[in-house]
């Protein structure tokens, strides 16, 4: 298997910075791709061992291009996650002044994070989306746009200068990135893990979503992401991307997935992996009555009842 990780490039993305925080990157070749889709395709085609892509940010929620890639096509699996605090720099060619800027570019996920700043400082500027923040910087270097929002670290790589740094509409904005590979045995549980799934309901009926969520709720499983995505089958047809607290080897999670498999049209398992914010949760886990021991003891009691040994 090739020891390379694909990532959303080009060089100088936040994605690259987040990826380099993983110790195993020291022994991997890191290969930039122009889009999330092409990075994930490299994994599907066996050209890369795994791909590292943004999946969620604390300002706008799920990054839909990534979710849609994971929802459809040949199954992939999340191996790891990384959280990165994000502030933007406004990068320009040397000598450009704020008053010279007529056009600006960045990744679409950057826009909601800098919207207020733009309104206050560059209200008439024309925004155009770039394939990534570093790609926006590259386009400014080429003269296609006057300015790009990107990480300050991207300035040197593209011969630009930061006219302004620390731009962030929301305090503590974070982006979550995931390392995605082909289906494999999930990493061993750490005690602070997350399980990601996609659910398709069997039929439309009142309370259908509540029925799905009930499988988690009755087993005391906290949810960390719930994002609906259109299935493409028409207005009102959605599947649900869910991140739940816990590991598939925890009884409560395995039982919730068993229940979901019974009642859903389809369940896609996207992996169980260590939480990047381990220790930050104030939700007591496991909830009373949902530990592995309690599941085993209860199943044991039912077996004894079935046997007439109660
Ligand atoms: O990694 C990047 O630089 C990206 O283009 C994705 C992104 C977009 C907005 C915030 C963080 C990462």
Automatic annotation (TrEMBL):
Q: Which CDD domains match?
A: ACT_CM-PDT, PBP2_Aa-PDT_like
Q: What is its EC number?
A: 4.2.1.51
Q: Which organism is it from?
A: Streptomyces griseicoloratus
Q: Which GO terms describe its molecular function?
A: prephenate dehydratase activity
In this chain the ACT domain maps to 197-274
Provide an example Pfam family for this protein.
ACT
Keyword annotations from UniProtKB, A to Z? Amino-acid biosynthesis, Aromatic amino acid biosynthesis, Lyase, Phenylalanine biosynthesis
Protein name stated in the entry? Prephenate dehydratase
This protein's assembly is summarised as: Homodimer.
Q: In which pathway does it act?
A: Amino-acid biosynthesis; L-phenylalanine biosynthesis; phenylpyruvate from prephenate: step 1/1
Q: Is Ribosomal protein one of the keywords?
A: no
Q: Which residues form the signal peptide?
A: none
Q: Which SUPFAM superfamilies match?
A: ACT-like, Periplasmic binding protein-like II
Residues at the site labelled Essential for prephenate dehydratase activity: 175
């Amino acid at each position: 298997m090739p020891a390379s990780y694909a990532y959303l490039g080009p060089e100088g993305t936040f994605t690259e910075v987040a990826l380099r925080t993983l110790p195993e990157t020291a022994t991997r070749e890191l290969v930039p791709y122009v889009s999330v889709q092409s990075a994930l395709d490299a994994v599907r085609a066996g050209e890369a061992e795994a791909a590292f892509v943004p999946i969620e940010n604390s300002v706008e929620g799920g990054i839909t291009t990534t979710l849609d890639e994971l929802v459809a096509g040949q199954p992939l699996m999340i191996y790891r996650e990384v959280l990165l605090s994000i502030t933007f720099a406004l990068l320009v060619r040397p000598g450009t002044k704020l008053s010279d800027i007529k056009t600006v570019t960045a990744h679409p996920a950057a826009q909601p994070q800098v919207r207020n700043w733009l309104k206050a400082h560059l209200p008439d500027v024309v925004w155009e989306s770039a394939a990534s923040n570093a790609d926006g910087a590259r386009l400014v270097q080429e003269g296609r746009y006057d300015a790009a929002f990107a990480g300050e670290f991207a300035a040197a790589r593209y011969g630009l200068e930061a006219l302004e740094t620390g731009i962030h509409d929301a305090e503590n904005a974070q982006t979550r990135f995931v390392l995605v590979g082909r289906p494999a045995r999930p990493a061993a549980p750490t005690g602070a893990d997350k399980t990601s799934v996609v659910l398709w309901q069997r039929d439309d009926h009142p309370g259908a979503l509540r029925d799905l969520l009930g499988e988690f709720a009755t087993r005391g499983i906290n949810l960390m992401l719930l994002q609906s995505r259109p299935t493409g089958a028409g207005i009102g047809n959605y599947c649900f991307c869910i991140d739940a607290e816990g590991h598939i080897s925890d009884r409560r999670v395995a039982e919730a997935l068993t229940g979901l498999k019974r009642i859903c049209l389809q369940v896609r398992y996207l992996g169980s992996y260590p939480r990047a914010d381990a220790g930050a949760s104030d939700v007591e886990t496991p909830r009373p009555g949902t530990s592995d021991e309690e599941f085993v003891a209860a199943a044991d009691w039912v077996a004894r009842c079935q046997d007439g040994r109660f």
